[in-house]
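ok here's Aldo/keto reductase family enzyme, seq below lol
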Amino acid sequence: MKQLTIAGQTVPAIGIGTWHMGDQPAQRSAEIAAIQAGIAAGARVIDTAEMYGAGRAESLVGEALANERREDLFLISKVLPENASRQKLAVSLDASLQRLRTDYLDLYLYHWRGTVPLAETVSTLQQLQTTGKIRAWGISNFDQADLNELWSLPGGNQAAANEDLYHLGSRGLEYDVLPWQRAHQLPLIAYSPIAQGDVWGHHLTTNEIVQQVAAAHHATVYQVLLAWVIRQPQTLAIPQTSSIAHMQQNIAAGALTLTAEELAQLDQAFPAPTTKQPLDTL
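and the structure came out like this:
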């Protein structure tokens, strides 16, 4: 099972995403069961945010994890840009902790940039880390220019991870962001690693090469897409599913290694960027 080190902890390279979870009461029991199945299958990382369902995803996660050993988990949440000020950040954090039924986060991310000065957000995150309510902090939806700015600030180089959109159909990070992060030893958290089931028109799962690679490994197309993402060093993928079977398959993809020939075929079908690309976000 492929692993990475993030915020000083070694965790499996495939975790559990929770975007869109908690929105439909009729799905609640299935979503809780899926999260619990993922943990039983070996996942340690659960990624959520105050934005997801206006806190409903965090509440769902809190319920799902109520009987788990907290020290076995790596819990990530995110603060909205409008709450990332010196006055509001601690309040948002406390609300997230209450919904999650925990007294600390392993990683707290600035969800995306807003109007609050970055230096103010960073200094406040640094202060919150000293309280023990967060073990580490990081950022999300940061491009290379944002990362350069962050690193120029006092304490900015203490960021523990950057969470960006990354999948086979969205490879813009490979041109500049990923090389920058490798050079600065900053792990990547890849959100929407299976392109949200092709809802954005990438047609990854119906691609002939992807299907052929999956067949060769007796794997699903989603497992191939996840294995492709975590081929990158120090990369964590956080797919979301409300299906127990799909959750178990997602976690099992951490043991799937694609061959050099297969990677070359996928490169041909979905070429890497040769110029700077605008940062993809959802």
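fwiw The chain has one domain: 11-269. kinda neat tbh
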